[in-house]
Amino acid sequence: MLMDEAQRLTARMAVPPGSLGLLEREVQKLFRTWPQIEWELRPHHFVFAADNGIVAAGVVAQDQDITYLQAKNMVEGRAAISCFCKVQQVPLSVVDVGIRSDEAVGIDRKVAKGTENFLESPAMSERNFWRACDVGREMVRQAQKEGCNLLSFGEMGIGNTTTSAAVLHALTGADLENITGCGANPGHPEIVLRKREVIAAATKHYRPLMKTPQDILRCVGGFDLAALCGAMLACAEERIPFLLDGFITAVALACAVRINPEVTRMAIPTHLSKEPGTAVALRAGGIRPDDAPIHAEMCLGEGTGAILGFSLLRTMLYTVRHMKTMEELVKSSNQ
């Protein structure tokens, strides 16, 4: 099999072949996404924030106001993702797609003040689904105009592990016991049981309506998931690679890949979230769970894992460019 340019660049390094493991494969994937090889990363991180009406069904233990408070905390630079981005010098934008508040937080693209309770009606109207999806597309295209060549995505929204598990279940048929975790509710097994009960009832009810990934997102998803899906589709169209985060972004990936299989080529995994549905979602998106280089038992969201993954990718890109090649090493030893 002939090597492509990405393989040649990593194969020439003065290290035993394959000794940098996943990091070699990740930087190769990065090279292949771009129209031409680049040596400078110009990143941007987007957090899509929205509330979910399904919290009214008892699927969380937290106050829904935390979505608004934490999104504000991100904008003020005091949240985990804000700190991660600052250390790595990655620009951060918080996009309000549907926080339940009169005041918008960050970039105002509020579709509505949260989705509907999908036990009572579809999570969103068709119009609102497409509006949320277009928010993600808009952010990607704006970043591209500003010269970005690598994006990463995160989310914020109380109840979004429930919406994500519901979407994944409807999309793949995966057993709810295997994909529904505690989310932000550790120590509350009754919450997990309630989530499974709610998801099973809703997916059974909406099954006749859920013919496409878009239908599934509209019926049982969230505005953040719709925006993430739209952003990933735009990345495939514009040939901009993006870093995956954890469970929620992996579910959005699974939806986007069903719509356009080319999305997989743009997606670079970073960490394997401890949320149980992550591996199923990654596989549904065409990503092997073992290809996520960071196994840190994280499940925070916000894109924190993606930014840690960025630090690895940036390190590897610098190394490929600056380390001595095997040819140079041999030549120097013969002098």
Description:
The chain is built from 15 helices and 6 strands. With 335 residues, the chain is of the alpha/beta class. The chain has a 6-stranded parallel sheet, sandwiched between helices. The two termini are 34 Å apart.
Share in β-strands: 5-15%
Could you spell the SSE succession in H and E letters? HHEHHEEHEHHHHHEHHEHHH
- Number of separate strands: 6
Give the low-pLDDT segments. Answer: none
Average pLDDT, rounded to a whole number, is 95
Shape descriptor reads: elongated
Tell me the strand order in the biggest sheet: 3-2-1-4-5-6
Radius of gyration: 20 Å
Task: Classify the secondary structure makeup into a structural class.
Answer: alpha/beta
**What gap, in angstroms, lies between the N and C termini?**
34 Å
Brief descriptors of the model:
single chain; 6 strands; alpha/beta; 51% helix; 335 residues; six-stranded parallel sheet
Structure summary:
This protein is α/β, with parallel strands linked by helices and 335 residues long.
Topology, pairings included?
Elements: H1 5-11, H2 21-33, E1 43-50, H3 65-75, H4 80-88, E2 92-98, E3 107-108, H5 126-145, E4 150-156, H6 160-172, H7 176-179, H8 189-206, H9 213-220, H10 223-238, E5 242-243, H11 247-259, H12 263-266, E6 267-268, H13 278-284, H14 304-322, H15 326-333
Parallel strand pairs: 1-2, 1-4, 2-3, 4-5, 5-6
